[in-house]
Amino acid sequence: MIRSARVRALLALTVIAVSLYIALTVPIRLGLDLRGGTQIVLQTRSTPTANADREATDRTLEVLRGRVDALGVAEPTLVRSGEDRIIVELPGVRDPKQAAEVLGRTAQLTIHPVAGTATATDDTERAGERVLSDASGERLRLRAAALTGQQVTDAAARFDQESGAGWHITVDFGGAGRAEWARLTGEAACKPVGDPGRRVAIVLDDKIISSPEVAPSIACGTGITAGSTQITGSFDDTEARELALLIKGGALPVAVETVEQRTVGPTLGAEAIAASTWAAAIGTVLTSLFVIAVYRVMGMLAALALLCYGLISYAALAALGATLTLPGLAGFVLAIGMAVDANVLVFERAREEHAARQRPTPRSSLTAGFRNAFSAIADSNITTLIAAALLFFLASGPVRGFGVTLGIGVLASMVSALLITRVLADHAASRPWLRNRPHLSGIATTGPVRDRLLRRDPQLMRRPRRWLAGSAVLLVLAGAGIALRGLDLGVEFTGGRLAEYTTSAPVDPDKARAALADAGFPRAVVQTSGDDRLTVRTGALSDAQAAEVTRTVDAVAGGADRVRDELIGPSLGEELRRNALIALALALGAQLLYLAARFRWVLGTAAVSALAHDVLVLLGVFAWLGKPVDGVFLAALLTVIGYSVNDSVVVFDRIRELRRRHRTAPLPRITNQAILQTVPRTVNTGMGAALILTALAVLGGDSLTDFALALLIGLVVGTWSSVFVAAPVAIELQDRTGGRGKRAA
Questions:
Q1: Below-50 pLDDT ranges, the chain
Q2: Distances in Å between the alpha carbon of 147 and those of 177, 240, 522?
Q3: pLDDT at 742
Q4: Contact in structure between 700 and 629 (CB atoms under 8 Å)
Q5: Less Cβ around it within 10 Å: N or C end of the chain?
Q6: Inter-residue contact 588 to 565 (CB < 8 Å)
Q7: Cα-to-chain-centroid distance, residue 533
């Protein structure tokens, strides 16, 4: 035993030392919603000449990488997602219009000899020719392309100060392109000055951007041998640089479409970090004080282990190179409550061992507590990891970051509770001063909750159908909210555009809604939060229409600054909506399979019934409150599923243990006893989680208020359902199977 304790202590010190080193030397990567910037998701589309397969997407990615590098954005990120999507992150870019235009253009450059002009009504394209208009509106007949962008070696924007001609673009050709350019211009030079055939048309994406005439000084048949040309026009500096960038970067192998675009200002990100940090700090302090008040010395050690949990989680995020997003930051805070849960499970089992007089010393009680609580801790954390995995694989954007940090937080909480807390608790429990004062340990007493229950011994499961009737009433009310008020699906699930503004003065949402209707946006949804925040949600808008919305809000508010802008294409909205339904179905199915394997089908089915109850009630409450159901809500909903399963697992784990001791006892009596024995854990864990979530709701800022509210509602509903839905359903199922449910545990 002494040797194993030393091994655990050495392992704990190693984990803490490595985590501290990583935290001090490896910077964590912040998501764009925390540091500000723009994220654009592009989807490749097949063209008549190329299929949008994985290879074409990879080639497109490389072309886009060159374009982004030329934009001068610091630390850009471009990655392929799936077969046909590319995610582009541009830190610090608040106006995504230019970036979206540069990234989204195919930039197919071709150079054609001009056959002649065409009239305004002449759309007939002769064999080998096509008709296009130049910048002045003149229609030209173009022969087949002689040169393409593949022969271009360089392009640069230049300003001609001497002639005053303004901005132009120089284009250099290499290899066979030099000879072809000389041949093309040599043939054109043979035409008379002023003849359309003496011109050369430079076409970009089926638009003539320049059609210069070959200078009289160029000899017929010789052409321009220098292998370069100039594109002139009425360009400003931005247009010239953008055009040079597109020509130099090369054409995209396939067409691309912007399906998602998110922009967050740096101010909003800084506010979110500050608010979440305050919420984490105050929530951790309140939770630590609560744990110390309940478990005394052991509570102090658990609070110290919580600090180690924070260090381990942070180091794991940094080491894995994971991106910390705003929902991810919330997941980091939420996992603190899960770390408390494992400690509470151990300490309550130790109290039971000590109360039964089977373990006379605090240390022996603790050893038994860690051993007996392990299965419940493992099962409850595995179910939460299932929810985190579903978020990672089926969610997108910042919500996926929540799945990452939630998963890391769960694993870190197990290390914190089962390793670090145990090392500290074993060391303290072996000290003579604590052995001689067992009341200070926090586990030598049964606790006020268990004392009251032991005195009253309520028979909660004597009439289980009464509890099911109460839950049925809740479900009817929730269903009425969904049917009568409907679900306010967020822009992620419907497609469209969402913009958030900070205003210089409070704005009446009705006034803003009327002004937007007058501006041509009658279906705009306007919401306010606080005194200086206004959110506008619309259908799909162009950048010009989005700018008009901003001007309207600015006029109504007397000054407004756009701090967030999200654009979701209809195809992506439909996909995200489908993935959300798949995630819910998989969450329920995965939990059923796992619980059926661990506790047999009766208890597994009962637990999943409680999960479905929680999902419907939470959806109904949000429908009645008119709160948006978006990606962040989905993250909260899947977390509620994991938390609800945790409660059910703890009860069912105790039922399984009691059935092994009392094989002939009826299930209602065993279930009632299991509930009463685990109520102290339920109350203490619920209080710890409630303190964290309340701090997140009050201090986490507008972006996390609805998220924390959903989790608080889920905490209450999940606690209710694990006792008064899952347990009665298990009893009813056993009765209906004619006693075959004896195998249920």
A1: 740-745
A2: 7, 21, 49
A3: 44
A4: no
A5: N
A6: no
A7: 22
**Neighbouring-strand partners of residue 450:** none
pLDDT at 57: 85
Q: Half-sphere exposure of 30 toward its Cβ, with a 13 Å CA cutoff?
A: 15
240-293 residue pLDDT tens? 887 887 777 776 788 888 888 888 776 666 777 777 778 778 888 888 899 999
Task: Kindly give, in sequence order, each residue whose CB lies less than 8 Å from that of residue 333, ignoring residues fewer than 6 positions away.
Answer: 276, 279, 280, 283, 692, 695, 696, 700
Q: Are strands 228-235 and 166-173 parallel, antiparallel or unpaired?
A: antiparallel
Tokens of 315: 């180091």
Q: Where are the alpha helices (DSSP H) in 321-419?
A: 326-355, 362-394, 397-415
- Helices and strands (DSSP H and E) totals, the chain: 22, 21
DSSP 8-state assignment for residue 213 = B
User: Tokens 């199977």 identify what position?
Assistant: 737
User: At 223, which amino acid appears?
Assistant: G
303 contacts 333 by C-beta, under 8 angstroms: no
Amino acid in position 673 = Q
Residue type, 564: R
Q: Where do runs of H (alpha helix) occur along 626-701?
A: 631-661, 667-699
Closest to 537 in 3D by CA, of 527, 551, 545:
527
Question: What is the DSSP track for 219-276?
Answer: PTTT---SSEEEEEEEE-HHHHHHHHHHHHH---SSEEEEEEEEEE-HHHHHHHHHHH
Backbone angles phi, psi at 515, to 5 degrees: -65, -40
- Which residue type is seen at 459? Q
Q: What is the DSSP-derived secondary structure letter of residue 417?
A: I
Sheet holding 37-45, edge to edge: 77-81, 85-91, 37-45, 255-264, 560-568, 496-503, 533-538, 525-529
Burial of 657 from C-beta contacts in 10 A (0-12 / 13-18 / 19+)? middle
Confirm if 710 and 630 have CB atoms less than 8 A apart. no
C-alpha radius of gyration, the chain, whole number: 33
Three-state SS for 687-735 is HHHHHHHHHHHHHCCHHHHHHHHHHHHHHHHHHHHHHHCHHHHHHHHHH
- CA angle centred on 454, ends 608 and 437, rounded to 5°: 110
Nearest to 278 by CA among 689, 698, 713: 698
- What sign for the dihedral angle of Cα 55, 56, 60, 62? positive
The per-residue pLDDT for 454 is: 65
